[in-house]
Amino acid sequence: MKIRRLLRILHRDLGYFIVGMTIVYALSGIFLNHRHDFNPDYKIYFVDFKTEIGPDTDVDEKMLRNILSELDHDVVFKKHYITNQGNIKVFIENGEVVINPETGEGTMNYLQRRPIIFEMNKLHKATIGSLWKWVSDAMAVILIFVAVSGLFLLKGKRGLGRWGWWWTIAGIIVPLFFAIMYI
Prior knowledge:
The chain is an alpha+beta fold.
């Protein structure tokens, strides 16, 4: 079997194999590239509400748990205390609640995972265990093979010897330019 035919078969079959992983890596890469514009893993919720708490109300854990249960949000009470400013600060799982006992007004801030995107980003960052790290490394090796084997598949004026050479050089120059200019 000729080497070009073998490259074509391997390039095709490995290319099919990595399609799903490449899409996950590409999408999560876009989200992670914009992590300074928004939090790609969590959505931050701010909820304002009103309570019956007044300046003379004796606040305890049971009362705060009842208030939280009425907010239509699945929050888990952890503990509470009174701040130096006199506000009631309640720690909840993935957030906090602050209630002003003078007005009875409260604000709840909490984080919630972005479905699917959170998991894709965990896979992209290879932070789910050593087995996934090896799968991720195998993916990288296959991507390198597919990229390099693709260079040798076409013949003629659109092959590596003419047209492809210039595109390959441009693909090397672009990241080098940014590395030199910004790193």
